[in-house]
Specification:
The protein has 13 helices and 15 strands. It is α/β, with parallel strands linked by helices. The strands form three sheets. It has an eight-stranded mixed beta sheet with strand order 3-1-2-5-8-7-6-4. The relative contact order is 0.12.
């Protein structure tokens, strides 16, 4: 047990007792994070502001869903501080804080560097415990507010790869390089059917190269169209419009959309403009934050995609043609689609009974349905029964996108 004091701004609210909480089989990194939090709060807890009030989701349900280390500590007003207020017949400032947080479905927040400490007012099972009590959670700065909005709106995150997932793009140079490589391949190939397939693939590249050459020479597509390496011919994957319309059906966002690609930023922004011309999926003023470019050779990571505390990885689905480019801890949230290959296998998309991106749409729909079914019928039903004295391990596990990601 540790002792500390709580301030709201410069106003002293009272003395408190802190009880650190430990999880079974906890990773060393989480133990160290918990210890750093305790080391800071024993110096004093300074509440800077309150979280936004929640209309639908209790703060405990939100924090239980997005925390990486569980309940960091339990906190209650010290008996000495409480008895002094009672003897003077004054309402304890901490009790007023406690009542306000419960009535308005909000938390008291303290800044901890790039993170936030959230105090959740808790009911007590003990008739003897007359003083206010709280659970403390530590999360990334801004994460609570953004995830609260998403959970209230029944919205999840979705992260798209670009090349060979949603599009295939070529410049004049890349067309020439691919045609040359295939022509060399023919010279070493002995199987006649394979030779015919390569010739057909070369023909498809040459046809699109002719189209692009016309654009380059007539400067009809983009500024500086005569620069051969920046003029691009792009093929959008079939059924993209179906997936796009599902994400924002009837003007209501079912998913917050992000992009994570190994392409260069200028290219990625231009490709996304073609995919989302009316900025329905990503607002134009959010583009720079939501399109994340990873250097070639590096692993993609949901932590980096959401580094500004805008979503939690447990609430995000990834659509990519490769799983091994993602951090291992994120791979369970990746729905892998076959690589889009309109030149190598032009009939592959058409031969599917359900288009690849319609399958992805169905997967996203099932993931969202499963996530919020468990959130509503499991977690939200149990939260009102949880009290300060309870063991945190008895709370149902929070939903995680990876639990519902079953490939069709």
């Amino acid at each position: 047990m540790y002792k500390s004091v709580v301030y709201k701004g410069e106003e002293l609210l009272g003395e408190v007792e802190i009880y650190a909480q430990e999880q079974q089989q906890e990773e060393e990194e989480n133990k160290n994070k918990r210890k750093r939090v305790i080391d800071e709060i024993v110096k004093g807890i300074r509440i800077s502001h309150f979280s936004q009030a929640s209309e639908r989701c209790p703060p405990l349900a939100v924090l239980h869903t997005i925390t990486s280390i569980g309940v960091c500590f339990k906190m209650e007003e010290s008996t000495a501080s409480s008895s002094t207020k009672i003897s003077s017949q004054q309402e304890s400032p901490l009790r007023l804080l406690h009542s306000s947080c419960i009535q308005e479905n909000k938390t008291a927040v303290m800044h901890l560097g790039g993170e936030e400490l959230h105090l959740v007012a808790m009911p007590s099972r003990s008739n003897e415990r007359k003083h206010p009590c709280f659970w403390g959670f530590n999360v990334a700065s801004g994460l609570y507010d953004s995830c609260l909005v998403m959970l209230n709106l029944r919205c999840l995150g979705i992260v798209f790869d670009l090349d060979e997932t949603l599009i295939v793009a070529n410049t004049m140079r890349s067309f020439e390089d691919k045609i040359e490589a295939l022509q060399k391949k023919i010279s070493t190939e002995v199987d006649q059917q394979r030779i015919l397939a390569i010739i057909s693939e070369i023909k498809r590249y040459q046809d699109d190269k002719i189209i692009l050459k016309q654009y380059v020479e007539n400067d009809q597509v983009i500024e500086n169209g005569k620069i051969r390496d920046t003029s691009v011919l792009v093929r959008l994957r079939p059924a993209w419009e179906d997936l796009r319309s599902y994400l924002t059906a009837r003007g209501r966002k079912r998913f917050e959309v992000y992009v994570c690609t190994m392409a260069e930023r200028d290219y990625a922004l231009e490709m996304w403009r073609l995919l989302d011309p009316e900025s329905n999926l990503i607002n134009s003023n959010e583009l720079l934050d939501r399109i994340v470019c990873v250097s070639s050779g590096s692993r993609k990571s949901l932590f980096n995609v959401f580094q500004d505390g805008i979503c939690h990885p447990k609430m995000a689905l990834v659509i990519d043609d490769r799983m091994n480019v993602w951090d291992e801890k994120d791979q369970s949230r990746v729905h892998v689609v076959p690589a889009f290959a309109p030149y190598y296998a032009p009939q592959a998309e058409a031969n599917n009974a359900v288009p690849i991106l319609c399958v992805a749409r169905n997967v996203a729909c099932n993931v969202r349905g499963g996530f919020f079914k468990e959130f509503d019928e499991g977690l939200l039903q149990k939260i009102p029964e949880v009290a300060y004295e309870d063991d945190t391990s008895n709370i149902p596990s929070p939903p995680d996108v990876s639990n519902y990601l079953v490939s069709e």
